[in-house]
Design a protein that fits this description.
Number of helices: 3
CATH architecture: Up-down Bundle
Helix content: over 70%
Mean pLDDT: 82
Strand content: under 5%
Length: 99
């Protein structure tokens, strides 16, 4: 918990460093591509974890009750489609924000 607190404090310092040391005549820095890239990485990573958990849980359920395969397969595919759609929506935002 202490390390997480240090990470948030460092991020807060970095967020306020740009306005504190800015000069009056320079152009505005466009940070949108960096934010969108971080968002895409975060979305892809967390969706990958979600898909891994879904497939792992379904595999465990099939090992316990092989007779429930048809129902589990349908719900697994629907769930994986919803999880993947979150990544695709974020990917679409990358193209909308950067171009």
């Amino acid at each position: 918990m202490k390390k997480l607190q240090y990470v948030f404090m460092a991020l807060a310092v970095l967020c306020f460093a740009i306005p504190a040391f800015a000069d009056g005549g320079s152009a505005v820095i466009n940070l949108a591509p960096i934010g969108v890239g971080l968002g895409m990485g975060l979305a892809a990573g967390l969706c990958g974890l979600g898909q891994g958990n879904a497939v792992g849980s379904t595999t465990e359920a099939l090992a316990r009750n092989p007779g429930a395969r048809a129902g589990l397969l349908m719900f697994l595919l629907i769930g994986l489609a919803f999880i993947e759609s979150l990544t695709l929506f974020t990917f679409a935002m990358v193209f909308l924000k950067i171009s």
